[in-house]
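LacI family transcriptional regulator: structure, please.
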Amino acid sequence: MTTQSGSATPRAATLTDVARLAGVSIATASKAINGRDQVKAETRLRVLEAAERLSFAPNALARGLLKGRTGTVGLLTSDLEGRFSIPVLMGAEDAFGAGRVSVFLCDARGDAIREQHHVRALLSRRVDGLIVVGSRTDPRPPLSADVPVPVVYAYAPSEDPSDVSITADNVGAGRLAVEHLLSCGRRRVAHVSGDPGYKAAQDRAAGAEAAVAAAGLELVGGQTFFGSWSEGWGRGAARMIVEQHGDVDAFFCGSDQIARGVLDALRELGRDVPGEVSVIGFDNWEVLTTNARPQLTSVDMNLERLGRVAAQRLFAAIDGTVRPGVEELPCRVVTRASTVPIS
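Here you go.
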């Protein structure tokens, strides 16, 4: 472009020009001009002098970049089709707010190599931070140590205690479920759960055992009955328990699928729910709880809230405030017709 006199219009100096003149990287020039403390004093002075010589005046977008922000974050899940990851992701996106932050969503499908590929792709887009959402509550290996942006782990905590992890309090949830049954007047509580290899199953069992012990009682059979996360296991376990412990008056089930099987077996055995026996499930999966007969009381892990808190912790980490360690969020009981107080 030329002026009417034919002389060329001088091109406005860019951050790249400043970095080149100062002999530093663009990232260092950005940090120096923005006053961030990761830059040595002499380097900062050299960058500021270069900016002054070039009459560098960043526009509004550039000023945003100088703050070290691109307004983008990465959400990395290991199970996009999973029952638990979707609510967490929805909560995180709610916290990011429509239009305020752009979100890149990647599904690693439980594959570590695919996960690393997605991490590299997200970093190439200069995301401000990452939220990593697991498919189960077992601690997972952290991302590579050279990831240059804040990372928050949601639902599945990182194995590294110096990382920021947000998960559900499954021990507290097990205690909460049994306390609800006890408040209904039940005293012979059986706990039927899923795969014992899952940390969630062990944690819920620990909470249940603590709750009955605090009431001076013990679980029916003196143990948690572990099996699979299925209705079939729930039906078989309920039949076995009723045959061996006919005075059982409550079932705490480790998942709603198991609880549906327990309800089916109790109905087939002629045991009235909730008149004779109370049943509580876990996960509050509404497609199961509201279609059960009777409708199923269940423990809700508040997964959308968990996602919102994870996003809030990521915002804080981007701003330099990090709360390392595992933060366990409380669950709640959603009461329906399968549990009522004994009249």
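Notes: The longest helix spans residues 199-214.
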